[in-house]
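agent> call fold_tool(seq_1)
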Amino acid sequence: MSKVSKSLSCVLIAFSVTAMGQDSLNLEDLKAFSYPFNILEGEFVGAGSERLKAAIAEAHITLLGNNNRSVLEAEFTNALITELNQNDYNTMVLEVGPGAGIVLDKRSKTSRKTLSNLKALNQQYTLNIDNRRVTPIPDFRTIEAATYLQNAIKNEWSFIAIGTDHWTGVKLLIDELYANVSEIHKPVHLALYQKTRSELDSLLSALKGQKNEDLLLLTSAIKASSHYKQFLKKMSTIPGNRPLIEALQFSIDYWWMYGNKEFYKKNELSSQRNKKLLTKSLIDRKFDFSKEKLFVNMWRNHLSKGTTINGFYGVGNMLLELAAFHGNKSMSIAIARRYYEEENTIKDGVDSAHFKWNRFKELIPLGQKDEWILIDLRPFKERYFYGPYQLTTAMHQLIQGYDFVVIPKTDRQATIND
């Protein structure tokens, strides 16, 4: 045997001995870091709540990663806003798209009208596609979501809108552009506006579904429309319309890339744009990271520390580093459900055919039907990174990516506000 072969054999034997000496994480190991809690009358109670409240009191930036737009996700968000409000938070970042953000700002000036204004918005713009109702701003399609927004507005919070406007909101943004035209000049643009609007109605009503090929047909037709292009050109001369036009154009391009299955490109552009939008908004409002506090409510995969599941450094990582740069603490929470109600039957996500692909699959079995579970990942680094344990790639990413994972009790679909 050559010297090289002998050396390689020694390395492999040493690795095997080391690996054999390592334990794999099991559910009992993880239970030691899970804490039950509940939400009563909009506030956190129980052992887990005390741990969560202590972390909130220390943090200047709190990141909440949602996933299902469900009843309990909205309920948790609402209770979190109440707790954050008691700790001097008053600014929230939403992932609804800057165009939708302008609309929400207009229609949510007072908390008393938030529910009714969003209901009117949904009634006017909801589409029925393949027997499914899709709303113009999906994150605020439900009564429960409108309730947490109302809670923030009642406490005089302001919000920043980033993300990509949904393709279902294209008519809404077209209407907003025309609404910004002065009354004296509206007749000049009326015919072009009506032609553009009518063409969009036809394109949307022809949709058979929401698959890649459906959205590719829709967005390709919009991009090719002479009425649409001419309308945007005319609207760009109206004061205040440029942010709406940028939001609309990016949205159509983004959903065209989605339809064309250019996933890497759309995700890269979206990640960079989100950071730019947030940076500009914080600079414009002279946000002071050394003193002020910020709450971010987005899809959970965008808020992890390090790289996202898509392989990019996202908003979450940017804000976590900014908090550290200014000598403050941050906190990142991800929601991952187990039990949920569907068609009057309680189902267990562990039994799903897709569960093996779930990146939270090692934690989700800790979920309970009748109480919330808070898993504190913060001690995991010292105990499991530097201890005699073997970690899966998914668990390694979770420990690096989040401070807490919240597993709701039995979840259910939220109530569409229309």
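agent> call fold_tool(seq_2)
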Amino acid sequence: MKKMTRILLLTVCFSLLLVSAAKAAPPPETSSVVMTEEELANHNLSLGTISWNDDICSGKIIVKPGTKDGTYTVTMNAFYKFNDLIYGLNGNKNQLKEFAKNAAKSSFKDVRTHAQTKGWWDCRWKIKSASKNKVKAVAKIEYKAVKVDEKSKEITIKQTTVKKNGKWKTTYTVGGKTYSPSEVKKLF
């Protein structure tokens, strides 16, 4: 009986250890809308699937013909890779680095969402370096035009997120020019 109790106790402890070591993340964001062919083109979408997977997010948009003539069903699933378990913990070096990464991801999430509303669906965001006070990342965002009278475009954004006086501040650099988070959205 003692041996059985020990095995059970070790199993429970090991399970708790695995759970506490795993990274938690917010639930996926999902949406589904019905669009006309004109609305689809205005959102730079066509039939098929667009998918992405980078350091901040994985997701996909699926466009299928709808049940009514001339309509399409657009379904989007996005899973943002934030580490929620670090909040409330008291700071070793790795936890502080995770705080910094989350701050950088949070800053860019708004830019990414804004770009997608303008039809810039293809975004690859990658962390280049991270410390407890500074994160550098690069995003390559593409507008792959579906309309015949439009051209495809591409923007490479360098992001720097720095902690100063207890607050995170993010700047973006495009072609040697520095932008604030609100200014960089005007490029899309």
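agent> summarizing second result for user.
The two ends are 68 Å apart (CA to CA). The helical segments are 2-21, 37-42, 93-117, 181-184.
agent> awaiting next instruction.
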